Amino acid sequence: MERKPSVLIVDAAEETREVLGTVLQRRGMETLWVGATEEALRLAQTRQPDVIILDLQVEGTSADQLCRPFAQKVRETQTPLVVLGSVRRSDKMVHGECFPKPYHYAPLIRKIEELIQGNSDADRPPV
Amino acid sequence: MPSLFVIRGNDQGTRFDLSEERMGIGRDPANAIQVHDSEVSRHHAEVRFHERRHVLVDLGSSNGTYVNGRRITQAELATGDHIQIGRTVLLYTGLTAETAEDAAFSVDISAPTPAEEPSHIVHVITQEEGSRLLDPAAVLPPDSWLARARSNLQVMYRTALAVSRTLDIDQLLQRIMDLIFEWIEADRGCIMLVDPETKALTPKVRRTRHKARPDEKITISRTILDYVMNRREGVLTSDASQDRRWDPAASILQAGVREAICTPMQGRYDVVGVLYVDTTISPQQILQTGQETKFKEDHLKLMIAIGHQAALAVEDTRYYSAMVQAERLAAIGQTIAVLSHHIKNILQGIRGGSYLIEMGLTEHDESIIRRGWNIVEKNQAKISALVMDMLTFSKEREPDLRPANLNQVVSDVVELVQPRAAEMHVEIHVQLAETMPEMVFDPEGIHHAVLNVATNALDALADRPEGKTGKVEIHTDYDGRLARVHVRDNGPGIPPEEIENLFRPFVSTKGARGTGLGLPVSQKILLEHGGRIYVQSEPGQGTCFTLELPVVLPTAASSQTAAH
Questions:
Q1: Mutant choice from A9, A84, A105 vs B, greatest count of B C-beta within 10 A
Q2: What's the domain range around A49?
Q3: Is residue A87 part of a domain?
């Protein structure tokens, strides 16, 4: 039987967790939650999720500091990354998708599905 | 920490801390010091750290880099330097000098030991006596060298006093003018300042000696002004038409000027203006006194010195107002940033909730609608709390005093936070004072304050280690004079260095969760009641906030008013 697509969600606010969890599970995806980025990297290797979502709860320098090294390490795992919150434009995250807050859920869900489908074909340009 | 502080320009109020690494200055976002100024090049300049000093290097910018008004290609920075790039002015503050000794450790005040005294007082002079050294009344031959030197010193002493006593530029210039008129026999005088924006000289103070007609216009030769401004030199002119440098000097002739002194007000960074005095000597006066001049080189020298003193004061005053303005802008910016961040999070919550509701409606699934609705409700509560806090904080509000029961208010709050506590698996223990008479206070205000503190207690327990039981104890007591509400949590506690910032508005340690308004607002409410709020916290053990109200028992009259 085919494995369920899985989404790893990192450091999400309670409400984001509830909304994303409900919606993604309804769409037949498995969701994993972790609080810290170190734990997330470990899971990214052992569980090999199709998409990783990083929720930046505190914006500003610390978020950038947290996000940049994390994005670099995620890139090594070849897993698509979605960042919720704004990242300074000068930090080019190469493969990261960024949804500045307040974002709408519909395009976010579409993007996640798109990334899951395109995961096998990573070079496909974003729609 | 060395820093650059923007005191003029679009980024006014921004502070950039300087590290020991190279830091680029420019319009491009890749610069560590990004300046939003269209007259600044993309990579305009950079600050390098070399042998414990910061060096500013221009990177071939189109409009140049200026330090204290001088264009530079490379300059070592000193504390207080003004750096201008495009329309932006930055103030440099450097490292504390290495040589500065710690006064506190190296100076001892010794107790008097009568037995052996290594130093003794040789001479005593009182403050008054010291000032009397500069007293003009002391008898000296009027033309002696000493008399002139002393008189000059006295003028400078009084100038220094005059400029040190005000932060109002106009008042300051008036005083300077008074001083000049007292000491030099001028008929007319004026002080002009360079307008910081237009760079044009603008007359600020004008003075004529009573014998001159007060409505008479002072005409000052542009040639003299330009000379003084450009060369930064003071000039003494006598019968200007004979002096080739003032050719054509028709303006001086028309005004009938025989003698004039015009000196630059040279400040630390630039010429901020000019001092000007003139006098006309009639032929009769020359016959009477046998002297053709009133103004002497000494006068010129002293006017230059006075101009310098005044300029320093003008610069300080401007610099001070620019700092105040910049700090104010920075505070407004910080406030808006915190608020918009908080509102953004609330909006994000509402969007999540409504997305779930929409999904539930499409799929006819009431359980999802309910989950979405809960989220919307929670965020609605958050935004009303925020608005309440902002209103309470901003306006001068009279507490709505009426008889009420503090135990009741606390119970209401507990009921309100109970669901969230249950969700977080936090136990709430309530112990209400057995005796708690009805007192006069603003029940809504106190409700708000207790709620803020209780919410904080829950927030403190949000990230507790797994397996640790979260506990919030709320109890009230009454001793006839004071009534208190204690809210104690067993969270991580507050680090001592954060305690003093607790009641400062818009300082939140809760990141996305806090507005930084809760405690300042609670404190304001308590203070309005003549009460207080205080905190005891032990890192690792927990925190206890106490809200203390003075007891005001309702008199028969006021309870009747309340009943109506």
A1: A105
A2: 6-123
A3: yes
For the segment B184-194, what is each residue's pLDDT rounded down to a tens digit? 888 888 899 99
For the domain that residue A101 is a member of, what is the CATH number? 3.40.50.2300
Cis ω on the peptide bond leading into residue B437 (within 30° of 0)? no
Q: Is residue A101 part of a domain?
A: yes
Cα separation, A84 vs A12, in Å, equals 9
Structure tokens at A16: 């984001």
* Residue predicted with more confidence, A1 or A52: A52
Nearest alpha-carbon partner for B264 in B470, B69, B432, B412: B69
Cross-chain CB nearest to A89 (options B29, B345, B375):
B29
CA distance A35 to A13: 10
Q: Do B355 and A105 touch (CB under 8 A)?
A: yes
Q: What's the mean pLDDT when you consider all of chain B?
A: 81
Q: B18: which 2 tokens?
A: 């300087």
ipTM of the complex: 0.84
pLDDT tens-digit map of B87-130: 898 988 887 654 445 555 555 665 555 555 556 666 665 666 55
Q: Tell me if A23 is assigned to some domain.
A: yes
Residues of B in contact with A102 (CB under 8 A): 344-345, 347-348, 351
- Counting the structural domains of chain A, the total is 1
How many Å apart are CA B183 and CA B117, to the nearest integer? 48
User: Does any domain span residue A1?
Assistant: no
Strand ranges for chain A from DSSP E: 6-10, 30-34, 51-55, 81-84, 96-99
Closest listed residue to residue B307, CA positions, set B269, B279, B259, B267: B267
Query: Between residues A30 and A73, which one has the greater pLDDT?
Result: A30
Q: What is the pTM of this model?
A: 0.60
Residue pair A63/A56 in contact (Cβ under 8 Å)? The answer is yes
pLDDT (0 to 100) of residue B253: 44
Bigger pLDDT: A1 or B295? B295
CB B528 within 8 A of CB B393: no
Residues in chain B, overall count: 564
Mean pLDDT of B398-427: 90
Confidence of residue B548 (pLDDT cuts 50, 70, 90): very high
DSSP A67-89: HHHHHHHHHHHT--EEEES---T
Mean pLDDT of all residues in B168-175:
84
Cα end-to-end distance, chain A, whole Å: 30
Tokens of B326: 């910049």
